[in-house]
Amino acid sequence: MSRITEFYRISPAAPAREQDEASRDKYYRRLRLQAFVAATLGYSLYYVCRTSLNVMKKPILDSGSLDASQLGVIGSALLFAYAIGKFVNGFIADYCNIKRFMATGLIVSAAANALMGLMGLAHSVVPTAVIFVAFAVMWGLNGWAQSMGAPPAIISMFLGDQLTAVVDHIIRGSEETVPSASIMRVGVSTLPFIRIDYSSGAGLDEVKQWISGRLCAFCGNSGVGKSTLLNALLPDAARETSAISQKLGRGRHTTREVTIFEAYGGRIADTPGFASLEANRAGFIPKENLEHAFPEFGPYLGQCQFTGCSHRSEKGCAVRAALAEGRLSQTRYDSYCAMYDEVKDVKEWQRRG
Q1: What is the C-alpha separation between 76 and 83, in angstroms, rounded?
Q2: What 3-state DSSP class applies to 293?
Q3: Which of 107, 181, 198 is nearest to 144 (CA)?
Q4: Residue 217: which H helix or E strand, with range?
């Protein structure tokens, strides 16, 4: 057990590299390529392992190995395991070497797919009940492995009473006082929230802890303060910053390339800002899967009185009961309802078009 713990332990701080400018540029070009290849291949392979059963449903039905209801139960095993895993693994990943943690998830996911394929080859000699149970277990294990990912965190540059008002009104949706600690959970969701005060340096140590053992990317709109935060963490970086444009009311795109810095036992990527974020272009989430985009719903999924509960108006809804008891954020629930209304009437042919 100690060997396993040591294997997944966050890596110690890397020693500082003494390099001339040419060697440093070459080194960071290689790091950028590694990060791009790893992110592209990792996500692609995860996605393939997640959707492989959809490709095989028709051949499975045609062969008579399983019927539609059994395939429905198997598919549900992945969704339930994925939802619970997102809730649990988000916490576990905070204390693990994220490279090894995510790689383990991909290996387990691939192994589950391989075992299901081998089991399918033997469908003529293996009883249907055995295939059904084995597929449900393997696909559920795949769902758990799919939930092993890199956790995000929110960093705020607001100060004092201004932060309190913003957090209470927008995120917490309540009149409660913001905790004095510089790191807290956003409402009752799973996203850590770090408050930064540049005048006192409060919150910077929490950011450094997040960087240790990870490749972190500072993302946000132009002018939000990504390079300013990097300068506070690494004064020698001397990243160029500029004020918000008074004419346009937004940032000036001072950072124009991705630059990776080694610090605090990890790596920091300072990224160019964006003027807007159109989430609808990133991928469509059907109404049946929308609940899984809200990890705080995870503990209550499957506990509703009716199968296929939309968590909006049905009686016996566990999610709405948790909301009424104050265990879920009202603003997060309102966001869920607004997103559900946007996708509830979208047909399959419209999505393809």
Answers
A1: 11
A2: helix
A3: 107
A4: strand 215-218
Q: How many CB atoms are located within 10 Å of the residue 135 CB?
A: 25
pLDDT tens-digit series, residues 64-85 = 788 888 888 888 888 888 888 8
Closest CA to 294 of 243, 267, 256, 332: 332
**How many residues can be counted in the chain?**
353
Does pLDDT of 151 surpass 70? no
Encode pLDDT of 270-282 as tens digits. Answer: 777 665 555 555 5
pTM of the model: 0.45
Phi, psi (degrees; rounded to nearest 5) at 315: -75, 150
- Both tokens of 343, joined, read 């996708």
- Report the alpha-carbon distance of residue 128 to residue 134 in Å, rounded: 10
Res. 1: pLDDT tops 90: no
Q: What DSSP state is assigned to residue 245?
A: P
State the DSSP H helix or E strand holding residue 339, giving kind and residue range, or none if neither: helix 330-343
